[in-house]
């Protein structure tokens, strides 16, 4: 977490994501080698620290690379694919390591680890980043620079004919620039932490990390005590949590289309009865084992349903800041710094979950522990309903729900394109027609050089009202 907080600004200011990603993999290989040859506690502690540093770098750069590449309308779905890797890696790693260690010995485990790292290095070298591709492939609809000569534009092209209005526009622009310069001096992380939407997403991430990792500490002990499972069987039962992660991209697609609010809130709400039902498997019988696996499958599904929306909310918070204050995060943006906060939140949950789960399991027992976790999920559902997907509005309520893509926002209402009030959805547009007596020279300019009369703006404002 400390390494993530210190190095994210550097990652956002590098030209390409490949270099910090490769450095992270090199550090990971070095720490793995130290684990292989280390035979003292200090060496193993240093290896663990280096491993944590490399992991923080790889996580942050990887998520930022996804956001750089994927369109905004598909971010939650892409995060669903990412969450598959997160879930599978966290759970299958210990399981495969244990099986290989039992069958082939200590060194064979590290051969597999070095093979995975080497494959990842090759894949990083083959990736062509969007920033690099822009040098060779122009974006669709990009203006031809040979035809765009700003020096030939006439002063009248501004569309403001009054000297007083020109002075007002210049003063307003100067004030706006001053605000941007003042805000841009504040670190991006601090600005993001001021956003309720960002804080809400980080809180969801901490809770998801806590729930997911709490089972790592208590579930093996539980199945050994109740069902007399050995280490291999205890590891295999985690497949019940991993398999539902394959549905995460579908949940992400739903989140992209309808918004993440009710998907996330419903997922946490459903966790309450699921955790309460975990009290039922008490005997070493096939029916009780099947019931435990079914409940773990459902819990894994609700985690997978909430994860893509929570991850995409981080990048959307950055985009919201950029819309309100263009250039506030500089030319490179702040996606790496935003996902550094996500990494810190998930790491915090990964620390709190096993500690809290292990402590409660020992202090008050399994039944009371799962009951407490269930009520924590219920509390989370009530807390997160207000800012998941943005501050809640009337259109977000279930009985008057409107899809985000069908909502009309103030910035979507342009001159000469006022939405038809009779359409109901906001998707249809038609040009406004001036009333008698209104002095409207032009309600919709034909080009960027055609002036817009001040009276025209007033008339359209009156029509909109």
From TrEMBL:
CDD domains: MFS_MdtG_SLC18_like
A GO cellular component entry from the record: membrane
Membrane topology reported for the UniProt record: Multi-pass membrane protein
InterPro entries, per the entry: MFS, MFS_dom, MFS_trans_sf, MFS_Vesicular_Transporter
Keywords annotated in UniProt: Membrane, Transmembrane, Transmembrane helix, Transport
Residue span, Major facilitator superfamily (MFS) profile domain: 1-392
Region entry Disordered, spans: 412-465
Polar residues: bias regions: 430-449
Biased composition (Basic and acidic residues): 455-465
TM spans (from-to): 21-43, 49-67, 79-101, 107-127, 233-250, 262-280, 286-307, 338-360, 366-387
GO MF, any single term: transmembrane transporter activity
Organism domain of life: Eukaryota
Lipid metabolism found in the keyword field: no
Localization per record: Membrane
Protein name: Major facilitator superfamily (MFS) profile domain-containing protein
Taxonomic source organism: Orbilia javanica
């Amino acid at each position: 977490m400390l390494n993530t907080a210190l190095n994210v600004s550097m990652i956002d200011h590098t030209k390409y994501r490949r270099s910090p990603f490769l450095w992270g993999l090199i550090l990971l290989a070095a720490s793995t080698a130290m684990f292989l040859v280390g035979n003292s506690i200090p060496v193993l502690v240093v290896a663990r620290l280096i491993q944590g540093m490399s992991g923080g770098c790889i996580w942050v750069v990887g998520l930022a690379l996804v956001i750089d590449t994927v369109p905004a309308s598909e971010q939650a779905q892409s995060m669903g694919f990412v969450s598959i890797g997160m879930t599978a890696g966290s759970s299958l790693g210990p399981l495969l390591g244990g099986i290989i260690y039992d069958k082939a010995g200590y060194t064979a485990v590290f051969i597999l680890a070095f093979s995975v790292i080497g494959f990842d290095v090759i894949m990083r070298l083959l990736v062509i980043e969007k920033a690099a591709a822009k040098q060779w492939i122009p974006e669709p609809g990009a203006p031809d620079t040979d035809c765009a000569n700003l020096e030939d534009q006439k002063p009248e092209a501004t569309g403001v004919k009054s000297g007083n209005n020109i002075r007002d526009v210049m003063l307003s622009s100067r004030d706006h620039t001053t605000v941007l310069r003042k805000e841009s001096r504040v670190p991006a992380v601090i600005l993001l932490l001021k956003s309720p939407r960002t804080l809400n997403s980080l809180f969801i991430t901490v809770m998801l990390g806590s729930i997911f990792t709490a089972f790592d500490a208590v579930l093996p002990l539980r199945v050994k005590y109740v069902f007399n499972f050995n280490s291999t069987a205890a590891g295999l039962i985690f497949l019940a949590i991993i398999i539902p992660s394959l549905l995460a991209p579908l949940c992400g697609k739903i989140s992209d289309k309808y918004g993440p609010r009710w998907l996330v809130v419903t997922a946490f709400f459903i966790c309450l009865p699921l955790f309460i039902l975990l009290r039922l498997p008490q005997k070493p019988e096939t029916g009780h084992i099947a019931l435990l696996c079914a409940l773990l499958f459902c819990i894994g599904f609700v985690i997978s349903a909430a994860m893509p929306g929570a991850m995409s909310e981080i990048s959307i918070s950055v985009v919201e800041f950029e819309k309100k204050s263009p250039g506030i995060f500089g030319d490179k943006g702040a996606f790496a710094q935003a996902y550094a906060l996500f990494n810190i939140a998930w790491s915090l949950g990964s620390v709190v979950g096993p500690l809290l789960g292990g402590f409660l399991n020992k202090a008050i027992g399994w039944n009371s522990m799962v009951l407490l976790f269930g009520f924590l999920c219920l509390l989370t559902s009530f807390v997160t309903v207000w800012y998941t997907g943005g501050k809640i509005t009337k259109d977000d309520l279930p009985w008057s729900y409107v899809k985000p893509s069908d909502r009309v926002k103030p910035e979507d209402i342009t001159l000469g394109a006022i939405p038809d009030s009779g359409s109901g959805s906001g998707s249809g547009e038609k040009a406004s027609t001036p009333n008698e007596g209104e002095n409207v020279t032009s309600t919709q300019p034909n080009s960027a050089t055609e002036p817009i009369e001040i009276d025209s703006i007033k008339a359209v404002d009156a029509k909109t009202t």
